[in-house]
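Private note to self, pasted from the team thread so I don't lose it. Backbone tokens:
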């Protein structure tokens, strides 16, 4: 009798253990099924030669080719005039992957965006252009003028304001800085509504081609080898689908290398996407100070410096660190 009484509790405990194990296995299976259910990705990008890598991978069919084996059936993209609205869209959860300036990412991270920079896209590549009637020898000559650039928190706005301050020009009092995308700024400078503009390529080349203004300062003179565009990926994608992020970075690296080796084709891809004169695009790529790069290690210091500048300008309330901004693991896994 005693033996039988001992067997029942043990059997009961064993039954409970088995049931719990089945529940856990079932839960894991459901989680795996939920993770594998992602079939659609949305990219964001801007109308700039800085971000041709995205367009090249799209034109070549590499995004579909590389991501479809991982379950992605549909790839969407949204075009944004500047990085500020692009990051607003990412904050709203409307895009998963952004080709965007590093500075807008910092502003968005400080506002609660759950994302990381996983790759670089390019460095430098912007010009300050000034209408021909205004002489220029130093930043002091810009006092009293109306200058257009991308909205607050973007690369161009951050660089321009910091450069003016460093050269004794108060960006809030000595000049009138207006927030504009490239299309509006090109129109405004042609109509003499603004005196100059600090914009990414190819916009400066188009302005110069119109004969109304000329380039007076390239962005490497403002800050040598400064970070510009990056690939930013949502935190959900990084945590739940790291294999997708790994492939996105690999495809981006492939497109970056291809563009560097096929400059004329890269120019044609951009011209076709944006309905530009391809010869103007080629001129822009010949004249700009930019370079396409994919290694995020090259831009870490510069990007962290942006965070400090934005903090000093009062754009963000907390200084961000490298770990807050970057996830270098996906690039490093490629063994480049």
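Design output:
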């Amino acid at each position: 009798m005693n033996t039988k009484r001992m067997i029942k509790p043990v059997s009961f405990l064993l039954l409970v253990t088995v049931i719990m194990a089945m529940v856990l296995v079932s839960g894991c299976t459901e989680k795996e099924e939920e993770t594998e259910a992602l079939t659609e990705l949305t990219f964001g990008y801007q109308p700039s030669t800085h971000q041709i890598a995205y367009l090249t991978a799209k034109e070549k069919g590499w995004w579909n080719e590389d991501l479809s084996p991982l379950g992605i059936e549909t790839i969407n993209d949204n075009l944004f005039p500047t990085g500020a609205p692009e990051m607003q869209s990412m904050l709203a959860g409307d895009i998963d992957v952004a080709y965007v300036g590093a500075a807008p990412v910092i502003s968005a991270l400080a506002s609660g965006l759950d994302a990381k920079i996983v790759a670089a896209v390019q460095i430098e590549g912007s010009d300050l252009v000034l209408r021909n009637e205004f002489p220029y020898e130093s930043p002091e000559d810009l006092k009293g003028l109306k200058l257009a650039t991308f909205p607050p928190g973007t690369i161009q706005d951050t660089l321009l304001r910091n450069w003016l301050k460093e050269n004794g020009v108060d960006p809030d009092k000595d000049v009138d800085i207006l927030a504009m995308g490239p299309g509006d700024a090109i129109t405004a400078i042609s109509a003499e509504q603004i005196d100059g503009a600090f914009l990414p390529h190819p916009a400066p080349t188009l302005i110069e081609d119109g004969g109304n203004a000329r380039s007076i300062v390239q962005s490497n003179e403002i800050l040598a080898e400064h970070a510009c565009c990056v690939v930013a990926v949502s935190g959900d994608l990084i945590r739940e689908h790291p294999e997708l992020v790994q492939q996105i970075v690999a495809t981006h690296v492939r497109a970056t290398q291809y563009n560097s080796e096929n400059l004329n084709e890269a120019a044609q891809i951009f011209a076709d996407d944006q309905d530009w004169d391809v010869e103007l695009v080629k001129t822009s790529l010949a004249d700009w100070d930019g370079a396409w790069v994919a290694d995020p290690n090259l831009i870490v210091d510069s990007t962290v410096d942006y965070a400090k500048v934005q903090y000093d300008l009062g754009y963000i309330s907390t200084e961000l660190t490298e770990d807050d901004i970057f996830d270098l693991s996906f690039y490093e896994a490629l063994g480049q």
